[in-house]
Amino acid sequence: MRDATAWTLKDFSDPSLVELFVAAAADSYFAVRHAAALALGNLADKRAIPALQALLNDSDASVRESARVALGRLGESANG
């Protein structure tokens, strides 16, 4: 259920959702972290950078790749 909610919300462009997705980036389920990374990239808000950088070390490859792409959208290098 958490992953379905995150996937549904990921396309919203409301900046008030940044904090929600930053928290979701630390979820125990990889699909939630993946959706959070996608959402944070879509929101393109600099407040997401620390959470996205942390996701670069995620155990799941799809989460790492989503974080890398999101950081690129924010103009940040995946190397920090």
| CATH class descriptor name | Mainly Alpha
- Shape verdict: globular
Per DSSP, the total helix count is 5
The CATH superfamily title: Leucine-rich Repeat Variant
- H/E element order: HHHHH
Rg calc: 11 Å
Largest sheet: none
Strand percentage lies at under 5%
Question: Would you tell me the overall average pLDDT?
Answer: 87
| Total number of beta strands | 0
Class computed from helices, strands and strand pairing: mainly alpha
Description:
The mean pLDDT is 87. The chain has helices spanning 2-9, 18-24, 30-43, 49-55, 61-73. With 80 residues, it is mainly alpha-helical. The protein has a single domain (2-73), classed as Leucine-rich Repeat Variant, CATH 1.25.10. Helix 1 (2-9) packs parallel to helix 3 (30-43). It contains 5 helices and no strands.
Could you give the topology of this structure?
Elements: H1 2-9, H2 18-24, H3 30-43, H4 49-55, H5 61-73
Task: Write a compact overview of the structure shown.
The protein is mostly helical. The chain has helices spanning 2-9, 18-24, 30-43, 49-55, 61-73. 61% of the residues lie in helices and 0% in strands.
Could you name the key traits of this structure?
mainly alpha; Leucine-rich Repeat Variant; 61% helix
